[in-house]
Amino acid sequence: MRELVREHRIDPAQLVQPLFVVENPKDAGPIASMPGIERFTLQGAVHEARTLDALGLGAVLLFGIPETKDAAATKNYDPAGIVQQTAREIKNALPHMVVIADLCNCEYTDHGHCGILNERGDVDNDSTVEVLTRTALTYARSGVDVVAPSDMMDGRVRAIREALDAEDFEETAIMSYSAKYASAFYGPFREAAGSTPQFGDRRTYQMDPSNGREALREMALDAQEGADILMVKPALAYLDVVRAARDRFDLPIALYNVSGEYSMIKAAAHNGWIDEERAVHEMLVSFARAGANIVITYFAKEYAARSR
User: Fold this and answer.
1) Among 75, 91, 233, 266, which one carries the catalytic annotation?
2) CB of 73 within 8 A of CB of 115?
C-alpha cells in the first residue's frame, strides 16, 4: 500500500554518473577519499560507460585530468584533449548515451583557479569566458551533447550559446552551474581532479552559502542568456534553493550531490553508524521531493545496480 501511494520515486534514468578521465594512464586508479570511485583511462571510461548503460543509466558527466597544466588552461581547448577524446569514443560506442562535459578551467590551470588570472593575480572574468567559449566549441565538435559551465563567471552562458549557435550547434544544450556555492563539501573532488587552488580560495566567484535570493537572481540571468538546464550545487544543504527554483522556473532543475556528501555517507556506513542503502535512497528521494529533475551523484552506479 505504501508503494502504491508513494508520491516521489527515483528512476536511474534521471541519474548522472560523474567520470574522471586521465590523460596519463599512470594517474588512473582509486581515489582514496571517495571509496568506490576511481580515475579512468580513456578506454577504462568507455568500458565504464558500457557498464552504466547496461544498468539503465543514460548519462555521464566527464571531468578531464590533463598530464600537464599551465596558467592559460591551454589543454582545456585542445581538440585532442582528454575530454574531447573520451566524448568521441563514448559516442562511437554508445550513440544513445548523453555525454555531458563539465566546462571549467580549474583542472587545467597550474594555479588551480577556475579562471584566467590578470596581472594582479585576480580571476579575469572576460578572459575566462573567452577560454570557456573556445573550449565549449571543441566539446561540441567532439560529440558532447551537453556542455556544463561550472566556473560562475558572469555572461558565460550567453557567450557560449552564441558561439555554439554560430557554428550550427543549436542542439548542443547548456546545463549551467547557476547556483554554485563556495562550499566545504568539495574537498574529495579536489583530490580526485587535482584542482586545489594554490593560493586563496574561490569565494570571489562562487556564492555565499548564506544567500538564497541571490541564487534565484543568478539562475534567472542564466535562463535569460539561454541555459537549457539550471543547476544547484551542492545538494544536501541547499534543498531550499532547489525548491525555490522549481517553483519559479519552468526549465529542468539539476542538482549535484557532491563528493563530500558522498564521502560522508561512505565513511559513516564503513563505521557501521548508518545503513548505507537506506540512507542513499532517502537522500535521493529528498532531491526529487525538493523538485530536482536531474541528479548528478557518485551513487548513481550503485543505486542503479540495486534497483535492477
Assistant:
1) 233
2) no
Which domains does the chain show, CATH number per domain? 12-307 (3.20.20.70)
CB atoms near residue 24 (< 10 Å): 13
From 69, 75, 180, 266, the catalytic residue: 180
CA distance 172 to 263: 32
Torsion angle (degrees, nearest 10) of CA 48, 236, 219, 128? -60
**Residue 180 among the catalytic residues:** yes
Question: What is the amino acid identity at position 189?
Answer: F
Rounded-to-10 torsion of CA 5, 8, 11, 14? 160
Overall pTM surpassing 0.90 (yes/no): yes
CA angle, residues 130, 183, 30, in degrees to nearest 5: 85
Query: Catalytic site residue 266?
Result: no
Per-residue pLDDT of the chain (308 residues; tens, 9 = 90+): 888 898 898 999 999 999 999 999 999 999 999 999 999 999 999 999 999 999 999 999 999 999 888 877 888 889 999 999 999 999 999 999 999 999 988 888 877 677 777 777 677 888 889 999 999 999 999 999 999 998 888 999 999 999 999 999 999 999 999 999 999 998 898 777 665 655 555 667 789 999 999 999 999 999 999 999 999 999 999 999 999 999 999 999 999 999 999 999 999 999 999 999 999 999 999 999 999 999 999 999 999 999 87
On whether the CB atoms of residues 124 and 118 are closer than 8 A, the answer is: yes
Tell me how far CA of residue 30 lies from CA of 35, 126, 135, 260, 282, in angstroms: 7, 36, 28, 16, 27
